[in-house]
Design goal:
Elements (H helix, E strand, L loop, with lengths): L1 H12 L3 H13 L6 E7 L5 E3 L2 H6 L1 E2 L2 E9 L3 E2 L9 E2 L5 H7 L3 H9 L3 H5 L4 E6 L1 H5 L3 H8 L4 H9 L1 E2 L12 E4 L6 E6 L5 E3 L2 E10 L2 E6 L10 H7 L4 H9 L3 H5 L4 E6 L1 H5 L3 H8 L2 H9 L2 E2 L12 E4 L5 E7 L2 E4 L5 E8 L2 E6 L11 H6 L4 H9 L4 H4 L4 E6 L13 H8 L2 E3 L12 E3 L5 E6 L4 E3 L2 E2 L5 E2 L3 E6 L10 H7 L4 H10 L2 H5 L4 E6 L1 H5 L3 H8 L2 H9 L2 E2 L12 E4 L5 E7 L2 E4 L2 E10 L2 E6 L20 H18 L4 H16 L1
Parallel strand pairs: 7-13, 14-20, 21-28, 29-35
Antiparallel strand pairs: 1-2, 1-4, 3-4, 5-6, 7-8, 9-10, 10-11, 11-12, 12-13, 14-15, 16-17, 17-18, 19-20, 21-22, 23-24, 24-25, 25-26, 27-28, 29-30, 31-32, 32-33, 33-34, 34-35
Helix pairs in contact: 4-5, 21-25, 26-27
GO cellular component, one term: extracellular matrix
GO molecular function: cell adhesion molecule binding
Keywords: Cell adhesion, Disulfide bond, Extracellular matrix, Gamma-carboxyglutamic acid, Phosphoprotein, Repeat, Secreted, Signal
Length: 674
């Protein structure tokens, strides 16, 4: 039984995507009888689709609502008085089958073009038969050209829809070609993961209709022969003049002439004209940026419009991705309906004309990247400070740009200090966040050294943590950060001495002999009690503490951890080991940092050897907290009980201690009597 189940599972897995979707449609339609398939019909049109599970529940195709209808699965028909579609269609020749499956116009034209004897007679053929609606959608001029000229053109057109062997949907492999019966010209097959099969970008509507002399597949378009490569299409289309020059300049001609299955999203001259001339000249004059731009318009596989019934992400030759989708009849790129002309078939793929240029990040300046991101206010700040040249030139830099929320109360005033601070937001060299490591040192254009901190849930540079994926431009990389950077200005002691709020703490550190410790190189996190915190202590307790250097040093060490923890790294509870030995518990509650449940007044005062948090209370180690102090009177009975319990266990192992145990029991009785 397990082997049988495995075999059945492998057989199901081997089904083509089309057959899998058809099977799902059968399952959804089985309540209406045998061989009934559920189909989704796009409201207001005649377009129908076999449904997959996702579409079944969404009830949408290309964002438009659908209705579910039930009809006979391919190859079956109704019987009066019977439920469902119990009868297989009569097996007859291809000519007769065309009339049964909804391609009567193809049947008519095969008669008129003298193809009928061939598809009525012996042989093994496959015909991709345009539906009646497909023929009706042709322009009068096109149709007239087919049926004139003693029907030779019509015969050739029909024979191009035929293959001289029996081909079922399972044989229609993605990216393959079939030699047609017209001069062996190729027919391109694409079989997509969503179950849609296209023939020269025409969608299979009703597939696998068996005939005595072959197979009939009904398609939604009349297909035409294809002899041009993508490169030849570029060379012959009038409105692709700029693209033609760009492809030649970037030496992509050979790629677009080669064998393969590409999708070219071809920018029209109109698309290029929409770009500011300065930007366009910069890209066209930069071979690397130009190549990235063009590769960003080439998808790695051929994607016909009919195959897109929902959004999907596709990879470009540049290595980036584009969101390809649809809205009703329109195709969309990154959510915008910018495809002007679709499904121009080439021998090595398909071309869609687009009326907007898709500029990848790799061809943009830092300024352009920032303007399109959630850091646009930062670019205004850098521009006001006269630093735009660093964001638009060819200098290899990384910009640490605070997100717009940082400036919700307005932009700061630009003065010399602010300009210097902004220079320290520009790091020398073009970096990538995935290569940053803990303890790494970065040099800024303001000649400051910044440290990298890697935490479980965040990546931070000094106090500023990266808030979004970095964007890599032509010469610079953009890091969006969650706050303005505050580069360190001195050691922990230097920072404390420079802030009048910590004068009592500075005196205490000096009195406890810890000054040298907090001046040396290191990685400290200091929870620094303010003057207010010391004043809040009972005077007697404060005096006693200040008069006892050893106890004072012990308390102060409890405020210092030997690792750097910036506020951006605090999400859940973080435990730090203090220099005194006990643990400090740091947490975030209502967007306020707490240490040992005490709120922090100010975070991230950066020092060259650590970070400082201002706290408004003096933290107490566990053993020094008043309720647990060892100098309070002890309960004599409790102390005796503790001793007795311990001696009881020992006396059982050592008979010489039995008298001591007896005396302790006597003392317990005396205390209980008292």
């Amino acid at each position: 039984l397990p082997l049988l189940l495995l075999a059945l599972g492998l057989a199901a897995a081997a089904k083509s995507p089309y057959q899998q979707v058809l099977q799902h449609s059968r399952l959804r339609g089985r309540q209406h009888g045998p061989n009934v398939c559920a189909v989704q019909k796009l409201i207001g049109t005649n377009r129908k689709y076999f449904t997959n599970c996702k579409q079944w529940y969404q009830r949408k195709i290309c964002g438009k609502s659908t209705v579910i209808s039930y009809e006979c699965c391919p190859g079956y028909e109704k019987v009066p008085g019977e439920k469902g579609c119990p009868a297989a269609l009569p097996l007859s020749n291809i000519y007769e089958t065309l009339g049964v499956v909804g391609s009567a116009t193809t049947q008519l034209y095969s008669d008129r073009s003298n193809l009928r004897p061939e598809i009525e007679g012996p042989g093994s053929f496959t015909i991709f038969a345009p539906s009646n609606e497909a023929w009706a959608s042709l322009s009068a001029e096109t149709l007239d050209s087919l049926v004139s000229n003693v029907n030779i053109e019509l015969l050739n057109a029909l024979r191009y829809h035929m293959v001289d062997k029996r081909v079922l949907t399972d044989d229609l492999k993605h990216g393959t070609t079939l030699n047609s019966m017209y001069q062996n010209l190729p027919i391109q097959i694409h079989h997509y993961p969503n179950g849609i099969v296209t023939v020269n970008c025409a969608r299979l509507l009703k597939a696998d209709h068996h005939a005595t002399n072959g197979v009939v597949h009904v398609i939604d378009k009349v297909i035409a022969t294809t002899t041009n490569t993508i490169q030849q299409i570029i060379e012959t289309e009038e409105n692709l003049e700029t693209l033609r020059a760009a492809v030649a300049a970037s030496d992509l001609n050979s790629l677009l002439e080669s064998e393969g299955q590409f999708t070219l999203l071809a920018p029209t001259d109109e698309a290029f004209n929409k770009i500011p001339q300065e930007t366009l000249n910069r890209i066209l004059g930069d071979p690397e940026a130009l190549k990235d731009l063009l590769n960003h318009h080439i998808l790695k596989s051929a994607m016909c419009a009919e195959a897109i019934i929902a959004g999907l992400t596709m990879e470009t030759l540049e290595g980036t991705t584009l969101d390809v989708g649809c809205s009703g009849e329109e195709l969309t790129l990154n959510g915008k309906p910018i495809i002007a002309n679709k499904d121009i078939l080439a021998t090595n793929g398909v071309v869609h004309f687009v009326n907007e240029l898709l500029i990848p990040d790799s061809a943009k300046t830092l300024f352009e990247l920032a303007q399109e991101s959630e850091v646009s206010k930062s670019t205004d700040l850098f521009r006001q400070a006269g630093l735009s040249s660093h964001l638009t030139g060819s200098e290899r830099v990384t910009l640490l740009a605070p997100v717009n929320d940082v400036f919700k109360d307005g932009l700061p005033v630009i003065d010399s200090n602010m300009r210097n601070l902004l220079l320290n937001h520009i790091v020398k060299d073009q970096l990538s966040s995935k290569y940053l490591y803990h303890g790494q040192k970065l040099q800024t254009l303001g000649d400051k050294e910044l440290r990298v901190f890697v935490y479980r849930n965040n990546l931070c540079i000094e106090n500023a943590c990266i808030a979004a994926h970095d964007k890599r431009g032509r010469f610079g990389t953009l890091f969006s950060v969650d706050k303005m950077l505050t580069p360190p200005t001195g050691s922990v002691m230097d920072v404390l001495k420079a802030d009048h709020r910590f004068s009592t703490l500075v005196a205490a550190i000096q009195s406890a002999g810890l000054t040298e410790n907090l001046n040396r190189p290191g990685t400290f996190t200091v929870f620094a009690p303010t003057n207010e915190a010391f004043r809040a202590m009972p005077q007697g307790e404060l005096n006693k503490l200040m008069g006892n250097a050893k106890e004072l040093a012990n308390i102060l060490k409890f405020h210092v951890a030997d690792e750097i923890l910036v506020s951006g790294a605090v999400n859940a509870l973080v435990r730090l080991k203090s220099m005194q030995g006990d643990k400090l518990e740091v947490s975030m509650k209502n967007n306020v940092i707490h240490v040992n449940k005490e709120p922090v007044a100010e975070s991230d005062l950066m020092a060259t050897n650590g970070v400082i948090y201002a706290v408004k209370s003096v933290l107490q180690p566990q053993a020094s907290r008043p309720q647990e102090r060892g100098d309070e009177p002890a309960d004599p009975a409790l102390e005796i009980f503790k001793q007795a319990s311990a001696l009881s266990k020992v006396s059982q192992r050592n008979p010489r201690l039995a008298p001591v145990y007896s005396r302790l029991l006597a003392r317990m009785k005396e205390n209980s009597g008292a």
